[in-house]
Design goal:
Layout (H helix, E strand, L loop, with lengths): L1 H9 L5 H13 L4 H14 L7 H14 L2 H12 L10 H72 L1
């Protein structure tokens, strides 16, 4: 967490994504470890019967890691061993937290995507500006060359006039 805060403070670009990520860390007391633990979840879930929804298959470890309530995770485990009509005992508040987290994550991803699009456009504009600058430089070179040739021509004419 200290590294995350240090990186957050040291960062030159404190954009909305960083701020909202920091808020979520403060709110839930964790980082996005759900992304790291999801493959482990899936491999553990393959051995079980596939009768639960995606939310219930993810929720067992997520609830324990996120909220520090092992009894809720145990109730999920017990529910998975019961018949297919039973559902895990996850509180509405926990579902709301999961929902808020997923909504925030979706917003963060949308913001990052828009940020990348903006950066791409800025790079395109910068490239066009550099192309224009190069063309202006080439034009200046040609004008200089023309002026030089014109000066040489004027000098030749002057010499010819003096020679007559």
């Amino acid at each position: 967490m200290i590294l995350a805060v240090r990186g957050f403070v040291m960062s030159d670009k404190s954009d909305i994504t960083d701020i909202s990520r920091h808020d979520i860390i403060q709110q839930l007391g964790r980082t996005y470890s759900i992304e790291a633990s999801h493959p482990r979840h899936m491999s553990q879930g393959r051995g079980r019967k596939r009768r639960h929804s995606t939310l219930s298959s993810i929720s067992e470890n997520w609830v324990e890691q996120s909220f520090g309530q092992p009894e809720a995770a145990r109730s999920v485990s017990q529910a998975s061993s019961q018949d297919s009509e039973d559902r895990p005992n996850i509180s509405i508040e926990q579902l709301r937290r999961v929902s808020r987290y997923l909504e925030q994550r979706e917003k963060d991803l949308e913001i990052r995507e828009k940020d990348l699009e903006v950066r791409e456009r800025v790079l395109e504009i910068r490239k066009l500006e550099l192309d224009i600058e190069k063309k202006e430089l080439d034009t200046e070179k040609l004008n200089f060359k023309n002026d030089k040739l014109e000066l040489e021509l004027v000098e030749r004419r002057r010499r010819i006039m003096e020679g007559q």
